[in-house]
Amino acid sequence: MSPLLAVDDPVLLSFADEVGASGPVAAAGRRTRWERGGALHPDTRLVTAPTGIVAYSPAEMTAQVRAGTSVEEFHLALAEHGQRSALPERGGTVGGAIAVGENAASSLGRGRVRTAVLQIRYVSAEGRMVSGGGPTVKNVTGFDLPRLMVGSLGTLGLFAEAIIRTNPIPEVSVWLRSDDANPFAVPTTVLKPSAILWDGDQTWVELEGHRIDVVSEQGRLGAIGSFREADGPPALPHHRWSLRPAELASLDRAATGAFVASVGTGTVWATNPAPPRSLDLGVAALTERMKHEFDPTGRLNPGRSVATA
Amino acid sequence: MDLHLDAEDLNSCVQCGLCLPACPTFRVTGDESMSPRGRIQLMREVQDGDAPLTDEVLRSFETCVQCRACEPACPSSVPYGHLMERTRETLADGGHITPGWQRVAFKPLAHPQLLQIGSAALSVAQRAGLVPKRLGLSAEIPFRQEPLTASGTDVYLFTGCVMDAWQREVHAAGQRVLEAAGFGVTPTAELAPCCGALQAHAGLADDTRGLAATMMANLAPDRPILVDSAGCGAAMKDYGHLLGTAEAEAFSARVFDIQEWLADHLDKLPQARPLDLRVAVQDPCHLRHVQRVHGATRAVLAPFVRELVELDDDGMCCGAGGAYSVLEPELAGAIRDRKLGAIDRATPDLVASANPGCSMHLGAADVETAHPMELVDRALRQV
Amino acid sequence: MAGTAWSDRLRNLTGRRAGTTPVADPLVADLQQALSADRVHDSGVHRALMKKDASVFTGGVSGPLCYPETTEEVQAIMRIAERHDRAVVPRGAGTGLAGGAIPLGAPIVIAATRMNRIVDVDLDDRVAWVEPGVVNLDLTRHLQPLGFHFAPDPSSQQVCTIGGNVANNSGGPHCLAYGVTNAHVVALEVVLPSGEALMLGGLDAEPLGYDLRGAFVGSEGTLGFTTKVAVTITPNAPAVRTLLLSFDTIRDAANTVGAIIADGIVPAALEVMDQRITEAVENYVGAGYPTDAGAVLLAEVDGLADGIAIDADRIGEIGRAHGAIDVRQAATEEERALLWKGRKTAFGAIAQIAPDYYLHDTVVPRAKLADVLDEVYAIAERHDVLVMNVFHAGDGNLHPLLVFDARIEGKLDAVHAAGSEILAASVAAGGVLSGEHGIGVEKQAYMDQMFTDDDMDHQGRLRRAFDPVCRANPGKVLPMGHSCADIAALRSVPSEVWG
After folding, report:
1. Chain C residue with Cα closest to B73
2. In this predicted model, what pLDDT tens digit does every residue of C184-212 receive, in sequence order?
3. Dihedral sign computed on CA atoms, order B179, B184, B190, B192
4. Options 3.10.270.10, 3.20.20.210, 3.30.70.2190, 3.20.20.70; which CATH number does C239-352 get?
């Protein structure tokens, strides 16, 4: 075993001890999405993941960060070197962002959380420190545990630390707003918008890159509507719907209430809660087998389930 | 069993698989045993691994079209065509492939009078509806044709066997084009009755060597030999390898595809109003993959037609493969289906093909074809 | 000019001479009944050809070979495999380099090549639904007129299949900017070894449940068989610039790569070739690669014309500051295509030098590229093996290419010894065992350099949730003792291929 990959960080090891090997347990972050997946069993012991940025190498575009670190703090450190990551800034922790797996409103430009996690370290139901993935931006060594962990709501392991892929902050970022543009024409008008948001009336587009490119893209947008610079994205309603991009055109305010939709990804923030979703029977059974393999006694985040999230 | 394959040649394949998509039989079957990599592996299994010559092994070798599209696709330059010809020669010698009826069928090729008589008979039979269309013969085999006459001694025009019997009008067109460019032409006629390509593909390399020797003895050693059939040209350019003599090497060096020759003498061709046609170029495999002079077809044709259009299938074989379309009609048909798809997508008025086999095979599927020389000739002769 | 439906008549092409030999093996009989006689092969030919892929590994023993055409047929094969307690191995084009498709224990080989339809291109959702046997480049060509492409572009893209890309989470030069296969697969229809067909992932923004799609991609055929894939389609960039930078030393080239990334540029591709491989490539393609330079860097930027002009100039500047002796831009699309053809056929081109090669695939931090390369050359020299380096420099993905003649006594041992030292050196530098080829049978024994027993135990759990008895491609990825590598199927007596 390469010494570089061995877990010898006493902070992580003591977190593993704290999680231990028995009794219901969950890790609490900032509780911004605490309700996801159902209510925790009341007897559940809460632990807090360790904090701190362990290593950051701007030239490698990777950062090793402990799960309890807030995303804002993490991004401040990255910004000092002109970088950022795909994790959404919504008041939570790095571990929470991975556990929940929600993408940022600008995910077209910043990437998805599920592709940003290069390595994950978590405490298993048996109280062991387990690593999946690896430290480099490209890696196919072994089964892809980081992918499995993103969005798992802490039901397979409690996150201690992750290596996150970072990206350069573009030279220019600008938000534009239009009252008359067809939002669904934007993807075929500009090459790589970082966000296209639509509330049923107005359209917001985030353009990023070289100044000269942003200016020319802005000119192209003029062909589909009149766009003015905006301060930023609109406020996003509380509830989150997950639709196919093609379904957005037929959004019904009667069902969603006020909404902001992310054109190109299918995420919709709405004032009404999303209708309940359920897994196909076969996938539900596989989900249960997975849970049972990783947490045979059901001690991790008891009461919480990805199948009802 | 020793297939008499050179160990270094056989070993030059590193089994990377880059040849697979270029292979027409693999493309239509998805079957490794119908791919160049698979066939080479089987050659190794037979030659080095003592694998028995089962029916499946022989099928794998027999189903190769020998289009040699795998050769330009191969970054390791494996001499696949020579490996396959050698394999077939060994197997034919041992009586494992190329049954007697096929050997008999190849015989008339070397005998012009016999071929003319046979063709006339076939022509009659065809007109009487007795020839199944799936054999892929040209729409109408001519009953009798005007003989070609020599106009000078600058170049030979190789006329060969089947093509001379069935498509002499192509030779006539080629000769007129050459003459328009100022070359005196001697049609080879009985001086060179057959190039031996089909025989070599069937593993009857000794027959080919005999025909090569005849041709080399009959043709004067001082002038270029122009060929308007891609398969024949490729075979004649390979005499050096086949006979392994300096004389044969020198002979092969004098062989040119007719388009290749004209592309080097474009300035000599008179100008003409382009034909009002959108023409798709279908490269015969042995022009593109073996002779690799398919650029010349475009260079020569472009000034004489309104529009040239490429097919989007990377020069994939049409399935004709010499006698292949007759011997393996199902595979040849499936391969042709892919070609028909590419032709449909290119929406041409007609397809230019510089090989008689391709023209006949495509013609049997109702594709209108013309030899590039016929098109140039037509443009030059229009008022 | 519609053609005859000849494909319907492609029957019994390989077995025609064999006539109606009765099938003795009940497994084969069941398979033939479930598919059709002409799509199940048990002959020596087929079993001999299935025992290898494009890797150096031998020792595979294949059972019957099946060509399913539908999901239902794959399900039937899985159920028959269960009934006969036989393992299954998926196979695409057989271009894998880690031995992932090598059959161990005479399994049923399930070939994807006849499931090769592009089912649908959905421009509204920007996905294409394809069957696993679709060739990577065929998909991109199909999308070309629509203005899109499939971003992962492994060097074998003209032959490798999308199913194989899914199994290996394939990369390629342009994954530097666009991400590897996992980032481009949104949903998968798979058949589990139980015979159950499931849809993993989905086209919606954030599908419910565990990311089983993500877990499946890159699992090297050990979780089940992919029968349909929804991949994202990427708009073609309106402009592209390709630069060729020449250097005296490979160290200069490697340091240039690190400096470009550190500068905040994200090129579409950054590829380095050393002098030996450049010579071999130039010999094959004649693209104008300088054969006298110690190394070349192929850099590509794509996007909007103005911005990439800035990036291209900047790359040139950075190159010169790091010792580039020449910087040139491809002037035409033909020149660009030729440069890429050279890069992408590099591995095959080395057969001009020796008949065998062993291609490694480690990743190291970009900052360590130069040092690890030095070490790689030193290791090769110690073992008296010729090494060439051609690699995806932008993401630190090394491809040391050991070139040899396996017929020379002891050479293969030396190659393996050198390879194992290269792996160790890469991991010691903070890297990983494989960037895009996978573990297969090649690197199982080295997994413990990266993972603890607990780590591998958890990978095994992921595997078991999909495939409790490890029927799918047993003996791969995890080392013996950490998985069901030693299941009954592997202990079954290998049958004689030419029996």
Report:
1. C345
2. 999 999 999 999 999 999 999 999 999 99
3. negative
4. 3.30.70.2190
